[in-house]
Structures are given as structure tokens and as C-alpha cells.
Amino acid sequence: MATMKDVARVAGVSTSTVSHVINKNRFVSESIIKRVNEAIDALNYAPSALARSLKMNRTNTLGMLLTASNNPFYAEVVRGVERSCYERGYSLILCNTEGDLNRMDHSLETLLQKRVDGLLMMCSEVQGPSPEILKRYPAVPTVMMDWSPYGSEGDIIQDNSLLGGEIATRYLIESGFTCIACIAGPQDKSPAQYRLQGFKQAMRQASLVVPEDYIVVSDFEFSGGFDAMNQLLDLASPPQAIFAGNDAMAVGAYQAAFQRGISIPDDISIIGYDDIDLASYMIPPLTTIHQTKDELGKLAVEKLLYRLDNPDSESTISVLTPKLIERQSVKRDN
Question: N or C, which end of the chain has less CB nearby within 10 Å?
Fold first, then answer.
């Protein structure tokens, strides 16, 4: 395999000149650039990314930890992250935790050992990674996406899930419903906790009683929404409307209703959360709470790269504001 020294010998120049031609970081005459490029072609030389990263102390690689899931929400966020990385000349290494704290720590250690320039974390578990691991790599900047603060020095980007849960529930109440159930996400995840709190708060403010069996805790997955919906439909007095803690569970709820011949929204109304791409293609299209997924990915990358260039800047917490997307899955009483 050809080296930079080989290129310099064939081109009749110094290795530093070859480096300047490749990295375009110093003026080199056109005639020398031509000689160097001809030598590169003749030797089939490929610059070593590892050598360059050691010299520059940058790998131009970011790491991202996220929970593996069938939920399209995560894929749509990753799409935004990958696009932003590509536009800025960075590569992305993805590791999924599958909700396992031990696997989270193992993946985190692996990413840091690979000398990623920065870390994006989107796992949403209330308990964060091992502080001991982060202490061993204090110079690596981090951005927490949708995670509760737990003492990290990194930046944090959060969805205002409490407000989103309130908005969804108030919309159902304003639509004329009084018997409203909630299919909540797993309560070891902070967004799920806050969305359920928002539901309860809106119901309490409207002086509406929530029977204990009207709150079903599920798993943020399609199958979880399907099972939860069947549980609610089996009640002696099923609800008139349902707030599903995310769109994936709302999709599962749709399927359960379909299998029982129950019409949405004529027989029961459903509102979701996330506004995944699939939501607008449901039959009927799903009314939901919009999260800025592509923008979330873009903002996370921007914050991480800013911190790379400004390591002494203060940590920030950014809160994204959810908004209602009205479609046809909620029957309006007006």
C-alpha cells in the first residue's frame, strides 16, 4: 500500500507539500498540484483517515446512543442527525441500547474508545449512563436528546412532554368528550411520565374523573398499543376517546378497533403524539401532537459541533414546543 512518502518521492516534492495538496490548507502552485495528483493516481494512494485524525486530534466522527425500537419516531430523528452530519462533513456511528442499562454503558465505552469527537444520547430512560465512564472521558462533549438532566455537563434538548400531554387532552375535552382514557408509555422514561402527567392535569383542571382502569401503561410500540386498546375496549364502560402517548401505540390501537369493527372516529376518537410520517397516511389520518424530529436532529448536531469549538461555553437546556396537528381521528362535537 502506497504511503505519503511514496507520493512525495514520485512527485519530487516533500511530504508536507503532499499534505497541503490533499488537505488544501496551504497555497501550492498549479504545476506542483498536477504532479502530486498524477503521483496519487499512479500509486493508487488513499489518505489515511486514522493518521489524519491523530494529527488533527479530530476524527470527524460523532457517536449516537439510542434505544432500539420499531417506533418510526427514532428513525425519523436519526434521519435528521445523519443528514446534518453529512452536510457538515461528519460520519455517524449508531449504537442501540435496547433499553438495557448495561448495554448502554458498554456501547458508551465503545464509542469513547473509538475516539468519537462528540456524543448524542437519545435513550429517554430516567437513569442515565454510568458517571464513572463519563468521568474517564471528560473532554468529550455530549448532547442529551429528550433526556432528563442527571448531572451531566452536556447540553440537553427536551420535548415539553407535559405541555404536549395537556394539549392533546384539552383537545379531546374541547371536542366534547368526558370519558377519556390514556394509553401511557413506559414509566421508566421521562417523556412518558410527563405526557401522563399532562393528561391527568388537563382532566383535573376540567373537573373530570379518570377511573383507575382508564390509564393503561404500555411500551411505546405498535403491539403495546394494540394490547392496551383491547384492554380498554373490554371494559364494562369503554372510553369515548383515547390519548395515546405516542403514534406507534395509536397505530396499534387503530388495528385493535378495526378487528372489532369499531369505527374511528364515529365510535371512538384517538389522538396520538409525535406526528410520525405514517400518521397522515392512516385511515382516517391521525390527529396528533407534532414533534420537530428533523429539526431535533439538526439542533443536536449544531449544539455538539458548537461545543467542540467552544469547550468552555456554559451548558444549555433547549425545550422544543409541541403543537397540535388536527386531522380526522377525533370527532368534534360542534
Answer: C
Q: Tell me which DSSP letter residue 187 carries.
A: T
Q: 324 with 171: CB under 8 angstroms? A: yes
Placement of cell 401511557 in the chain? 184
Render pLDDT for 113-124 as a digit per residue (tens, 0 to 9). 888 999 998 875
- DSSP type of residue 54: H
Indicate the DSSP class of residue 331.
-
Taking residue 36's Cβ as centre, other Cβ atoms within 10 Å add up to 24
CB 196 within 8 A of CB 187: yes
Following DSSP, what letter does each residue of 3-49 receive, concatenated? -HHHHHHHHTS-HHHHHHHHHT-S---HHHHHHHHHHHHHHT----H
Residues forming a β-bridge with 65: 95, 121
Between the two ends of the chain, the Cα-to-Cα distance in Å is 75
| Confidence at residue 262, expressed as pLDDT on a 0 to 100 scale | 97
| CA distance to 121, 262, 284, per residue, from 80 (Å) | 14, 36, 27
What is the rounded distance in angstroms from the CA atom of residue 246 to the CA atom of residue 143?
Answer: 23
Quote helix, strand, coil % in the chain, to nearest 5. 45, 15, 35
CA nearest to 314, candidates 103, 197, 204, 154: 154
Largest CA distance in the chain: 88
**Dist. CA 118–CA 307, nearest whole Å:** 9
Rounded CA separation 300/158 (Å): 11
- pLDDT tens digits along 18-62: 888 887 777 889 999 999 999 888 888 877 655 555 455 668 899
Q: Count Cβ atoms within 10 A of the Cβ of residue 29 and give its class: 0-12 exposed, 13-18 middle, 19 or more buried.
A: exposed
d(CA 326, CA 329): 8
* Residue 294 buriedness (CB in 10 A; 0-12 / 13-18 / 19+): middle
